[in-house]
Amino acid sequence: MTQSVTPELRRWIIEQASAGFEPEAVLTSMVASGWQEAVALEALESTLREHLRSQAAQRPAATIAAAPAEGVPVPDLDLSQSPRQIDAGDRVVDVIVSLNHPRVVVLGNLLSAEECDALIAAARPHMARSLTVETKTGGEELNPDRTSSGMFFTRGQTPEVAAVEARIARLLNWPLENGEGVQVLNYKPGAEYKPHYDYFDTNEPGTPTILRRGGQRVATLVMYLNEPTRGGGTTFPDVGFEVAPVRGNAVFFSYDRAHPSTRTLHGGAPVIEGEKWVATKWLREREFV
Ligand code: PD2
Ligand code: ZN
Questions:
Q1: pTM (2 decimals)?
Q2: Superfamily of domain 69-284
């Protein structure tokens, strides 16, 4: 039977974390009270991630650690010969624009219109509004930084998901197993995703637990499944760069260290008219289990 994560469970997770319980202990008691381990782990991770993100947003910038001197290997496309197109196995993908710092590549025609529609159709019945919990009152709050709704596929969950994942692995020269499940997000007019980093903050107490599933995130691919009429671009505020959401296109960016020096601060600008659907693929250092 499929178990779904309730706002009450999320509130309870934050209460446990705020009371000083280690994530491992919270996970153990969730499993003991009948939650499937995979569901419990996902609920734990996503709840703590959102919670830590909202806390981090309120902290002064002075607490940011120095950048590690050595970066790690990251996914990348082979652009050494400045190709206009790249063979991704089952599809030829267009290279529209690339930057080196931050490493950002805008891709055209990564997904067919049929694949975009199939991903939306498969995701639509499972969309849930992103909530965060107000720890002072115990009430639920809509996360003001992230007003979209979303869902995760597991790796290979549908034929379209599996095909897209294989294409991404070949395109970005990165093992398929290192990918998280595809996340689908839907933004209605006014919804946005405020600028943030996708890597996990190494200063946060919950991060070691998150990293057990495959290490750090090292790259992101945001795939546009439809086209809002106005607004909804993906922005990179550090470099004044904005990617227009065009159906089938995607923006790739990588970060070789969990640090702002990567200049990968990015956000989803508010949708002004129409709605926006994206699928995000995050890539980890190692196999994501
Ligand atoms: O929807 C977007 O444009 C967007 C922007 C920033 C998605 C993400 N981040 C993400 O899924 O991490
Ligand atoms: Zn992001």
A1: 0.78
A2: q2cbj1_9rhob like domain (2.60.120.620)
